Amino acid sequence: MTAERREFREWIWYQAGERFTRGEKTAVIAKDLRVSERSVERWRRAWREGGMDALASSGPSKLLRLSDGRLAELEKELALGPTEHGW
Question: In this structure, are residues 9 and 17 in contact, taking their beta carbons and an 8 Å threshold?
Answer without folding.
Answer: no
